[in-house]
Fold these 2 entries.
Entry 1:
Amino acid sequence: MTQDYFDRFFAGETLAASRLMSIVEAGGKAGEAVLNRLFPEVGRAYRIGVTGFTGAGKSTLVDAVSRRYRDAEKSVGVIAEDPSSPFTGGAILGDRVRMQQASDDGVFIRSIASRGSETGLSACATQLADVLDAFGRDIIFLETIGIGQLEYRIRHMAHTTCVVLTPDAGDDVQSLKSGLMEVGEVFVVNKADRENARRYADDLRSMLELRQNADWLPPVVETVGTREKGIGELHEAIERHREYLSQDGRLEEKRVESLRDRVTLVADERLRELFWGNDTIRKKLDSIVASVVAGKKSPYEAAREILEPLAINSRK
Amino acid sequence: MTQDYFDRFFAGETLAASRLMSIVEAGGKAGEAVLNRLFPEVGRAYRIGVTGFTGAGKSTLVDAVSRRYRDAEKSVGVIAEDPSSPFTGGAILGDRVRMQQASDDGVFIRSIASRGSETGLSACATQLADVLDAFGRDIIFLETIGIGQLEYRIRHMAHTTCVVLTPDAGDDVQSLKSGLMEVGEVFVVNKADRENARRYADDLRSMLELRQNADWLPPVVETVGTREKGIGELHEAIERHREYLSQDGRLEEKRVESLRDRVTLVADERLRELFWGNDTIRKKLDSIVASVVAGKKSPYEAAREILEPLAINSRK
């Protein structure tokens, strides 16, 4: 990556941004070099997490709220995890469809293909958001599929996290995971034209009030994304949370937590690479697996043994 | 855990099995001690993985196929990941509902609450399957939610992996992830009474034929789980794959791969515990995060530095 490329990036060339994002997404030394170079310029954007189950209508909501920000002359970027069913390779298709809608060049949309793990996916989304942040986007949406222990993944990815729910038949607010309740700073009941939506939203409000243990009571916004209903309210709710964060050092606190998280994630990944990439360990694994196969050791005893060569020098 | 408990377990007491599973699920030294004690008895059960998106009808299929095995006088165990929406704490509810159906004591059903990560979930499911295996169950179903990089998770969990799909409006076989295509040994098109089901199944068959690179061409079975249609065919397809595996040392090959995987997973988890549990590392993390916050280092440079005290002794 030549200096020339970075110059074009900082001059606001979309193609240069796309190219840097591809390098970052591919990972490795080159990706890291880009991130190191951009890091001093990262930290100005406001990041909005939008999470929810496949089919909840996240993309439609993100598109609609983006327009509000565009109207207010803010530049917008969107990082979307595979926007389709977990069973389809939706990233490519989704990219194409959404790119077409994004004719307004104030919105930069990027889908991420899936990664080896959920953690890998979050790490990649955060890195791409960093590129858009350094690129000067004011607002960055991180659209994530809520799967598994999502609370673990998205806790520090965004400044404001919106949890998008839909009132499906038979769904009960009581059954929402407590972790999900804790991670949401704004709740959206989308498809609010459905029969039981109002009751669902009211139940959600009662539950949030009961649980409240901080100064911020997460608002519940009712929307119909496909008919642009409730979008203004959602935009306002996000902005109210942003205002809240801007007080009493809360934004700085979030920044520290998020950086700590990031360092830990990167170190974790590298720890595994170093360990399993080591010749001694690889040979040891082969011989130990052989004795597990022969029934001489349990996998747990074997795992303990593999870790024996590991040492942490306290002087360094 | 007293010897008496293991005696009751090996005598076939369901309560003792439940108790041991709870200990294993809780993890730690006690869980590991149970797994070590049971390991010599593990390896007789046939494991059938059933994976698919939430709502695909996996539980209904597993229940129906279980009955076929029960009719053939096989004892059955089911390990089910959170059977409800990823957004609900379904494990508890699911447990209750399914336990009631399992009045036949030849079927032992156990749901797992979600874990810190997908990998943690797979590891836990495999461990609980080990307990049921040692308990003498002939057939063990591992019902997993297909999320994220599921191919990565379930590759070595089962002897026969069934991928359950449903032909939803607009779905296209072409968009199925290639990883998913590779992991399935039996494909099920459930809800086959839907309009486009036949075409979907046919497309799937064509695609599998094109991709075929081994001796085994995965069959595509059309089922309507709720009306018990196609259950006999599904049962037969699984048994045909089992028969295939029993030849040419394939079963042994699967066993070795699965044990290698298991050792690696356990060691991986422990590696992180050892590393981050170390005092030197924890102190180092604090001071390094501070310099990232101050803008003196990027998170990537910081991560490299944290790993410096790591050493792998080649003599051990």
Entry 2:
Amino acid sequence: MEAKAATRLYVEAGLGAGAMLALAPAQAHQLRAVLRLAPGDAVALFNGRDGEWRARIASLTRDRATVAVEAPLRAQEEAGDLWLLFAPVKRARLELIVEKATELGVSALCPVITERTNIDRLNPERLGAIAREAAEQSERLSVPELRAPLPLMRLVTDWPAERRLILCDETGAAPPAAAALEALPPGPRAVLIGPEGGFAETELDALRKLPFVCPVGLGPRVLRCDTAAIAALAMAQAVGGDWSAARLRRPAGQTATRG
Amino acid sequence: MEAKAATRLYVEAGLGAGAMLALAPAQAHQLRAVLRLAPGDAVALFNGRDGEWRARIASLTRDRATVAVEAPLRAQEEAGDLWLLFAPVKRARLELIVEKATELGVSALCPVITERTNIDRLNPERLGAIAREAAEQSERLSVPELRAPLPLMRLVTDWPAERRLILCDETGAAPPAAAALEALPPGPRAVLIGPEGGFAETELDALRKLPFVCPVGLGPRVLRCDTAAIAALAMAQAVGGDWSAARLRRPAGQTATRG
């Protein structure tokens, strides 16, 4: 399909014309077995620092691939600054939150332990891979940072005062999200989503007293935590976030539609 | 957990004090094996017409349950009027779209066949069950109607002129969603999401010429179709939709938090 974008791959190494890079075994597998590419085919590379570069597959076996970096495609852009604080939930919904948050431009994924959080282990390798893949698909030039889990109340005690914390308040007491977000001053922001059982009353009371907290309502229905995360992040980007920015255009012949 | 809402079940039958209803086998299984309820336990019932009613389990075996309807909990509310037009995609993402659209208050789910739609079969029973379950979880009093698939161009040829069609335009040419939605007059609306490969240029050209079509942009990144559907529905409800309505309160002791 002509409209298909070049395959984008995240790499750790520095990017520059003439560099020869070894890809990860999973990437070699993806190129060969999933995408059926071959030596000579073009891919696009990014590393979160050096922009996006066109590269060509130099060698490709079952689990090894090398690529030759050729020319720059896009300059590195200023990454957005939006954190997502989320209570770990069961695997499928957690992975969905990481994938969708990445697509929606989150810069830091911050797991928080709340009173009713009943998941105590994360798989950072797996979640990191999901974030990388979502960044590749979404044309981002960076991968969100996955932080170590912290107790919610410790995190907000040590909070950078200028960063607004958008609290998704499921009690029905908060003003609707659109109005609340419009009233926020410019500056860095974070979205906070509670666990499956909701926040405890004591947590909500403490959060509402903090000067940087902005409670928002997400409508009259009860949303699952993954739905709430996606809806709140979309709202945060649409009202005061980066949705007013023009889409970064890719070179001709590489449109930006993905499934 | 005290804060847990009563189990809500969708039924087809009419609801009124004293009615004795047989539940579906899957519901009997859910009550007994998943939720470990027993005769005498309370549940809440709704059917999309008669509001929400408290009922009590009268008998419960492996695949049969009868419930006695006792008293009304909530009056039937006016259902929202928001359609989602979506191109069928692979199963996992399709099911996610149906679940999340239901949580976000969609009244009609309308599969549309576009030029680049490459899925030609849906499983209406499975999708209907997902919508019913999401309605139960989200405290809705209705289940969205799942329509039969129609070619997109036939659907818009026969379109009710007063219903605005919010076109999620991934080309970067549309105004940002918040501004575009704020400019819409009040009235019924629909959201249209394209297939994995995006709309064809001819489709976009034809859609943009229709007087009821409102193209919106969903930010600078490339969103998967399920992400785009959830983000656009959240925006449509938040700006001019029902998110400004107060949450319907349930009786004391039944708060509305779910995972």
